[in-house]
Amino acid sequence: MRVAAHAALLMVDKYEIFTWDSDIYYIAIVMCPDRKLQWFKNRNYDREALKTIKDMVVSHFEKYYYSAPDVSLLPPHSQQKKKGRFIRKFDEPETSGSFSKDHIQTYLKEPLVSPAVISDAGGYLKYWHAAVNNRPSLAKMGTDFCSTPASSVDAERAFSVGRRQVNFMQHNMSPNSFRSKVALGSWQHAPFFPKITEVSKIIAAQLAGETFEGLSDSDSD
């Protein structure tokens, strides 16, 4: 039992090390409004690690999601006032230390959202979807990272399927044909996917350069 417990701890430590190689794990947790950085604090992350995670999230937000407002489009009274000749210092902009509502710094300073609120909204993705109008940049980042798969089951299943699809009889299959074949196999049990007879009619119509009458234009696309 001691050997088994030790092996389990080594496995947990291994995945903990791997997570530092990918920022998705940390950003996804921070973009959960009921967790944020508090989730790591509750798990005894030290101050240096917390700062690293915060800097990682802020850097990613400002690099890929945030676009600073154009100062020239702001009302005159909200633009920076020019300083006098003798008190101006190299025309440096004033820094108030405040951020807009749609900034990651504002989001991190806000109190945690109750899990009940997330549940009533229908989950994290619907919560962020409802925030698109008020906080578009945060909503985009939250949607991207909260939709990240929580496990590698789908990827492992794709590898297994791919091994069965490409055998010694199909070594000349093109990448496009392989992707189409794997995608078709993964969709066959989805509720939106038509029956195999309908699929064969669609393929026959496409090969003949016609439009299948059983589907609308959007469905045939």
TrEMBL record:
Residues 105-167 form the HAT C-terminal dimerisation domain. Coiled coil: none annotated. Signal peptide: none annotated. It comes from the Eukaryota. GO terms for molecular function: protein dimerization activity. It holds the Pfam family Dimer_Tnp_hAT. This is HAT C-terminal dimerisation domain-containing protein. It comes from Candolleomyces aberdarensis.
